[in-house]
Amino acid sequence: MGLLALTAMPAAAQSPSAPGSGAPPPLPLPPSMMGDFSADLMPDLPDLSTLPRADTEDDDRFVIIHSGHTSGVYYLAAAAICEALGATFEDHRIHCAAERTTGDPENAAALKSGEAEVALIQGDDNYRAAVGEADIGPARSIMSLFYESAVVVSRPEVDIAAVRDLDGLTVNLGPDESAPRHLWSLLSQHGIAPKPDAIVLTQYERPALHRLMCEEEIDAYVDWIGHPAPYIGRTARYCNARIGGVPWTETVTDLVDRTPWLYRTVIPGGSYVGQDEPVKTIGTRATLVARADTDAEIVYHITRAVLSDLERFRGYARALRASSLVPMISEGNYLPFHAGARRYFDEQGLPAAAGVDAEASAGAGAGAGAGADG
């Protein structure tokens, strides 16, 4: 996978004009370039997983955050974290890179195998790992970052008031184990969406969807993701697509009330071209986790860099603007907090009650697993 967002290069690569080994300017893409871009245009850079670790470097340490597609928000969030670390580089000399991945399933597998030390996963996977329904290795919560809200994107001619109105239409649910596939499974299990055999199901990846919708090869697609998401922005702009959610019916409200990792959420008005009003829907939290054996000093400085300057983090991408301190600590973090994160919370007097009673909570979830990058 290509590594695209770096905060500082190793000392050997630093400019000799920077006395004192100060950090060079962070290299993640600036917010002005984040609104609408294609992963096809992003260059592949060398894999930084081969860089020396702290035990082979006198002062410098390295962290790679496994994120997601550049068409989603996980990658933007990881790059924002790296930029925050870069701004405080002289305090800790931690080099940070955001690694492109296919999203949540790959990240969870990498945590389990030990390939990833820090990664983003969906809140439902965080919950299922906490209650023993999923194995992602000895993982610990750091914080949650933003809501990943369910969205229904449809052609302008398709008039739907509810998800079940997609019955009989051509709907893209993405590959097996993807976020849209699991979202649809959750909704159809509870009678909120048609059964998969009641639609014409396609399995295209995100980058192709705006072209397919503009050419009327699909009627709609669903996802749960942070908003605004670059690939949905392209569909809305070039195809005049409608943006819908999962309305808060009695059935939906009951589902949310019975599902610990599910929330009533809103896609803000103006997130996409033609979507002027807020859209009510449901969602989960995107969560940042680390293996328990990850250097506590690195996790501490990640936590400190983000939470001590939330304005910087929020300013990196529009999808992060609603990130707020209290939900970042109190929502979505079902795994116990990592020692490094807890150290920062204790210093600041912040309540940190991550973790769930596995015996009491087992089976309380709605039964749908996490999907791809949000």
From TrEMBL:
Coiled coil: none annotated. Residues 12-36 are annotated as: Disordered. InterPro entries: TRAP_TAXI. Residues 12-21 have a biased composition (Low complexity). Residues 22-31 have a biased composition (Pro residues). NCBIfam families: TRAP_TAXI. This is TRAP transporter solute receptor, TAXI family. It comes from Caenispirillum salinarum AK4.
